[in-house]
Amino acid sequence: MAVYAVGHKVPDSDSIVGAIALAYLKNQIGEEVIPSRLGELSPETQFILDKFGFEAPELKLSYAGESLYIVDHSDIALAPDDVAEATLLGIVDHHKLGDLTSDTPLECWIRPVGCSNTVIKMMYDFHNVEIPKAIAGMMLCAILSDTVVFKSPTCTTADIRCVEVLAEIAGIEDFKALGMEMFEVKSAVLNTPMRDLVMRDFKNFNMNGTKIGIGQLEVIDLAIFDKMKPELEADIAKLRSEEGQHSVLLLLTDIMKEGSELLIISDDEQLTEKAFGKSTVDGKVWLDGVLSRKKQIVPPLEKVFA
Ligand code: MG
Ligand code: MG
Ligand code: MG
């Protein structure tokens, strides 16, 4: 039986770097943990791994009979399909408490901060373990990604302080420039199949028995999507017919204008009116100031389905 650290399905940089950083910490304190992942890397995550000279964690979908640390969520819908047959040793996260549960006592590090890697930094401090330069650099990038370079309403002073300390360890002078470089990589959406874009940062949620899929693409200038929108809308409609969600939402987030255009296909035409107080026009609505799926999109939707 092996022990793995793994993030959520459709892994983002926080999930991948978090698995690596947590496994390294555990190995330093005498617990053998292997970092793994539940899906392909995004271009942003590949950029981070290349920059700091790391290999991708092993792709592993089945964990029956193994032990697990879960990073960056606590939801059954985002966990390995056979998570019920694994032993949950711990959760390290920064989202609302989900529906994962355990048969045995477990270690929980859950804080209302902007990124799991901020919590992992607290764990390094707690165990008094030094963070290697390259891992510090990757953790810094994960925090800048999750907090949209501190612009997201999910960002806390703990995240900012953490980035400052990690920048010092990693020897990165201008971390904001590195953050923007990362978002430029993220903004390269041209010549990519529509389904790849829709699924790049996609999560299915179980809202009181109703399945809702929400994807997000964060770019520096939304104009890049101008010609693509009809194809993106067609693809989320196709995805919904394949996966059977009540609604599929795709957030096109402009990190400079600090808002999101929401594309939606839903059984309920009034859903955005009910959740966000704004109705859609041709299946689209601009939500000013909305950058965060977990803080600004999921909670109002959950209220509608409560
Ligand atoms: Mg995540
Ligand atoms: Mg995260
Ligand atoms: Mg994100």
List the helices and strands and how they pair.
Layout: E1 3-6, H1 13-28, E2 34-37, H2 43-52, E3 58-59, E4 67-71, E5 87-93, E6 107-110, H3 116-127, H4 133-146, H5 157-170, H6 175-187, H7 194-199, E7 202-207, E8 210-219, H8 229-243, E9 247-254, E10 259-266, H9 271-276, E11 284-288, H10 293-304
Parallel strand pairs: 1-2, 1-4, 2-3, 4-5, 5-6, 8-9
Antiparallel strand pairs: 7-8, 9-10, 10-11
Report on this structure.
By secondary structure, this protein is of the alpha/beta class. It folds into 2 domains: 3-184, inorganic pyrophosphatase (n-terminal core); 194-304, Diaminopimelate Epimerase, Chain A, domain 1. Helix content is 39%, strand content 21%. The strands form 2 sheets. It has a 6-stranded parallel β-sheet with strand order 3-2-1-4-5-6. Strands 7-8-9-10-11 form a 5-stranded mixed β-sheet. It starts with a strand and ends with a helix. 43% of the residues are buried. The mean pLDDT is 96. The chain binds magnesium ion (3 copies). One magnesium ion is lined by residues 12, 146, 201.
Number of strands: 11
Q: What kind of assembly state do the chains in view correspond to?
A: single chain
Order of helices and strands: EHEHEEEEHHHHHEEHEEHEH
The end-to-end distance, rounded to whole angstroms, is 40 Å
Bound molecules: magnesium ion
Within CATH, the superfamily of the largest domain carries the name: inorganic pyrophosphatase (n-terminal core)
- Tally the helices: what do you get? 10
Q: In what order do the strands lie side by side in the largest sheet?
A: 3-2-1-4-5-6
How would you describe the shape?
globular
Count of spatially separate domains: 2
* Percent in helix: 25-40%
Calculate the mean pLDDT score and round it.
96
